[in-house]
Every structure is written in structure tokens, then in C-alpha cells.
Amino acid sequence: TFKKAERINSLPQQFFASLTGKVQEVMKQGHDVINLGQGNPDQPTPPHIVDAMIKAVNSPDNHKYSPFRGLDSFKEAISVFYKREYGVDIDPQEEVAVLFGGKAGLVELPQCLLNPGETVLVPDPGYPDYLSGVSLAEARMVTMPLIEENQFLPDYGDITLEEREKAKLMFLNYPNNPTGAVASRTFFEETAAFAKNHGICVVHDFAYGAIGFDGKKPVSFLEADGAKDTGIEIYTLSKTYNMAGWRVGFAVGNKSVIDAINILQDHMYVSLFGAVQEAAVEALLGSQNCVEELVASYESRRKTFINGLREIGWDVKAPAGSFFAWLKVPEGFSSVEFSDFLLEEVNVAVAPGVGFGEYGEGYVRAGLLTSEERLSEAVKRIENLKLFDK
Ligand code: PLP
């Protein structure tokens, strides 16, 4: 046995691994678990994208190393996609970095921009992998609380002058995992102005960029004036096109940041499988009906689940975007106690809010990633616990 490097020992606990372990244990005992604890999209990749992949796999050019920094056709498709969806101009050569999914980019970024000990602003609650990148870069984290009274947006006024001056990088994510909140263009304008004033690079994680409800399309950070001077956006095909297993995404925005990502990646990889990139071109430029259908399916699930919970007396808020419901736990339980209770008593798995940070305490996260029948069944099981007054 070899001793692990300190940087491996220092990585935060993978909290989804322990959740999955608990769920599997209950399943092994023969129980039918409704698993709303994970973030894995349940629907298949649309067939026209799969077909494009199959065709591309048969092309011998794709059997070789694909070009460093990605296929031109993919980078050009990204530029067309951003113009079409958000009205934002992106230079395909200098303002795009191809990524092995959003997660890779998010974890790489602190290593690209920070020296050990430098400060990063991280939302709390937030996607746990931001912390992994910060830890690998040996950077220092300052949390920005996301609370319901502020619509789960950070209040920059709360960040002390000293911390503002020290901060080099800030993570943001709207539509938000885990709270389901969305951000307005005005908020992004404020963010860009704040970041510019203090020389902070904004990394906006737009993983749920396609998933907004009530007819409201989520806003890209890059739509804000001057956004490209202050940061980048990370986009992934995982959620928009149900391609989580394909590992394909990209970063767009500030040239110097894109350059840093590309340099790091030149040393780590060559690039994504060319056939995956060709399929991604089909996803971005082909028919977008599949995206409309996907959003409609989540919207319908949201209605079934949220209305169902309200009918049994649980006072819950509907998410404005993403595919997560962020539910306040009943009095008397911590988030871990409540998620354990639901799993053990009625075999419904949800993620405890504290797994997303200290400010996630008091909530659990439920993913709308199963059929409406199963979501209704989950509501019925919770009703049987008689926790709420109707
Ligand atoms: N960012 C957020 C907020 C997420 O929830 C996820 C996936 O669950 C990702 C990024 C990473 O997605 P991927 O690595 O599949 O692109």
C-alpha cells in the first residue's frame, strides 16, 4: 500500500457516495426505493443525437487523436448556439474551451487561476464539486450564504471589504442546484459590476441553462454588460440533451480564462472523442424540439409533485428552474435525520440539505427525475407518515 498525497486526503468527502450507500442498503433488504436523492437525468438522449454519434463512430478520422482544443465544427456550433439562444457573440477560437462535462471545467478552474492560499467565493448551499477544485488548488474558501429571504441570491453587501479585495474567483450557479432559484439579468449586471470593481473572475455554472419554468427562459451571465471582461460561463450538454453519460460540455467567455483552461488541458488530455463532439454539434444545431419536450416533462412532474405535497399539508415552494425541489424539513428534524427517516420509514430517498453546505441545513433536495406515477407514489408514502396538518 502506498500513502496517498495530502491533496487527495484533503479532498472533501463525496457526500453522494454515502447517500448512494444508504439507498443501496435499503434496496438490498428488498425494499422498493423511490430515489429522488440523485441528480442523474432519467430520460434517454434524443435519437437524432445518438444517430449522429453512430455515424461519426464509423468515420476513421474520429479513430485518431482528435485535434487539441476540440474540433472547429464543435467550437463553431457553440458560437452559433450562444448567438441563437442568448444573443451573445462568442469567438469560436479564442472564447471557447471544450470540456469533459461541466464538472471537469469547474474542478480545473481554481487550478488555472489561483495560487495556494488565494481566496474563492463559493455559494452555500452549492454544488459540492466547487469545493473539490478549491481544495486541489489549495485555495481558501469564503462562503456566500444563499437564503430564502434573498431569493437564494448572494448579498454582495455582506462580503467584507477585506474579503472582496482578497477574492480572485467567484462561483455562481443559476438555475440553481440545489435551491431551484433562477437569477435575473439585473442580478447578473450587479454581479458583473461588483466583480469588475474588485478584480474578481466570475465562473457562472449554467448546467441548468435550458430548464426554466412558467415560460421563463433562464438568463445567461454573458448577457450582462461587460460580462466577458469579468468571467466565463460553463455549459454542459448533460441536462439540456440528456447526455450526462457522454461527458461533453464547454466554457465560454473571457479570453484569458479560456486560455488558461486550454493550457492546463493541453497538458492533461488531447481532446474529447471526435465522434462525441460531432454528436454534440447535432445536439446544438439540430432540432430543439427535444429540449422543449424535456422542459415540459419536468414542468409537468413539478406540478404533480409540488401540488401533491401541498395537498397533504407540506408547505413547499415550487422551483423556478433546474429539476430540483428544495423542501423545508418539518420542525424537530435535522436535514440528515429527516432524509434518513423518509428512507427508512417509507423508502423515499432525498438528499439532506446540509450536504450542500451549512446553509442547506433545514432543507432536503428532491430530484424530479422519475415518472409522475412514481412521484405521486412518493407523495402518498409521505402522506402515510401523517407529519402535516391538512
Ligand atoms: N453543475 C451543477 C450545478 C450540476 O448539478 C452538475 C451535475 O449534476 C454539474 C455542474 C456537472 O455536470 P456535468 O459534469 O455532467 O456536465
TrEMBL record:
Q: Which residues form the Aminotransferase class I/classII large domain?
A: 32-382
Tell me which cofactor or cofactors this protein depends on: pyridoxal 5'-phosphate
According to the UniProt entry, its GO molecular function terms are:
transaminase activity
Keywords (A to Z) from UniProt: Aminotransferase, Transferase
Q: Which NCBIfam families does the record associate with it?
A: PRK08068.1
Report the protein name in the record.
Answer: Pyridoxal phosphate-dependent aminotransferase
Source species: Rossellomorea oryzaecorticis
